[in-house]
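$ ./design --mode recover --in tokens.txt
reading tokens...
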């Protein structure tokens, strides 16, 4: 284990840059915080390159013998963390290779989903349902620290596809697209099991021209007469129905 005391250390400067999408792409790395999230990532074969710990958390390094472990003071941990209250366990991971579009299977399409918490929750639900594909079109970067955190590390258990809408249409093969819409859609029990559930933007939903090119539109019945459901909640229900 190495020890870093200076905030001006070059490694610390590089890690701070990973807060931003541009630099994650350049470095081909992403960051994760918390023992549970990091452990789940590792269990799903994400490559942990650096593990940062403090004096109070350094005992966990015994479980990561093949990883470069870095001991830092609380002040540096706070500076590299994206959380208001750092957990004291911080990892830098290699970005996984982008999957081939030919490996696309049933799962979720997150179309212009902009909230990191919603995206992370939907990725986690997709993984929990045993589905393998998450297609991200526009919206927030799926490797944003808050997305990774909200997925609780499950992001490593699925294939993350980054593409535009037309590329999806051109390459989905016989997979159906089931657009989740607020009203006038079919019963969710009619979802073809070989489908991708298409979940749109939290405020504006799915663009009309995108929805029109889907194989079907589905609407979750709400007997309680609420106006709508949160995108992550609605998407999670639809993903459950797809998988069961």
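writing sequence...
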């Amino acid at each position: 284990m190495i020890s870093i005391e200076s905030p001006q250390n070059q490694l610390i400067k590089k890690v701070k840059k990973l807060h931003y999408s541009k630099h994650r792409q350049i470095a081909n790395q992403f960051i994760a915080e918390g023992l549970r999230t990091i452990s789940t990532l590792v269990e799903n074969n994400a490559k942990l390159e650096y593990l940062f710990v403090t004096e109070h958390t350094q005992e966990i390094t015994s479980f990561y013998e093949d990883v470069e472990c870095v001991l830092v003071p609380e002040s540096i941990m706070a500076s590299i963390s994206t959380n208001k209250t750092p957990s004291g366990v911080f990892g830098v991971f290699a970005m996984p290779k982008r999957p081939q579009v030919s490996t696309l299977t049933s799962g979720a399409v997150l179309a212009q989903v902009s909230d990191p918490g919603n995206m992370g929750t939907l990725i986690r639900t997709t993984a929990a349902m045993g589905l393998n594909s998450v297609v991200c079109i526009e919206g927030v970067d799926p490797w944003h620290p808050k997305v990774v955190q909200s997925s609780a590390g499950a992001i490593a258990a699925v294939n993350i596809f980054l593409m535009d809408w037309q590329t999806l249409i051109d390459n989905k093969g016989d997979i159906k697209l089931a657009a989740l819409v607020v009203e006038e859609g079919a019963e969710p029990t009619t979802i073809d099991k070989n489908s991708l559930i298409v979940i749109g933007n939290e405020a504006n939903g799915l663009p009309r021209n995108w929805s029109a090119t889907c194989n079907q539109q589905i609407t979750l019945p709400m007997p309680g007469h609420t106006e709508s459901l949160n995108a992550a909640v609605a998407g999670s229900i639809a993903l459950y129905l797809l998988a069961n």
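exit 0
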